[in-house]
Design goal:
By secondary structure, the protein is of the alpha+beta class. 30% of the residues lie in helices and 30% in strands.
């Protein structure tokens, strides 16, 4: 197993066949909200995804597990976070990114419903 990523000219990075057989996913650059170019990456697997992006001058990630219906922001379950406006903006912007991605658009509904439920629960 080489562990090296194969790069194509389309901006899509797929993991080597050996790694894909183990993790079953694809990682690629995605445009930011509004279709603007960004340094964002999206890794989509069969029942979860991870989105990495720049947040307040550092790398951050949002991970969604569809089976457990949990969202993690920078490694922390958002259910237990005090979400600030900039956190919420990043979390909701991700739904737009997912909607425009051919591999991830199937996750938009479950992700948005989970996010809405957690936000509502946090306001109680």
């Amino acid at each position: 197993m080489t562990g090296q990523n194969d790069k194509s000219t389309s901006g899509v990075q797929t993991v080597s066949p050996e790694v894909a057989g183990v993790v079953g996913g694809v990682t690629r650059r995605v445009p930011g909200p509004g279709g603007h170019p960004s340094d964002s990456m999206l890794a989509v697997y069969k029942d979860r995804f991870t989105y990495t992006f720049i947040f307040q001058d550092e790398v951050a990630s949002i991970h969604f597990d569809t089976i457990r219906r949990e969202i993690f922001f920078k490694g922390h379950n958002i259910r237990y976070m005090e979400l600030q406006h900039d956190h919420l903006q990043s979390l909701w912007n991700l739904a737009e990114v997912l909607a425009h991605d051919r591999e991830a658009k199937n996750y938009v509904s479950a992700y948005s419903e989970t996010l809405g439920r957690v936000v509502a629960d946090n306001k109680k």
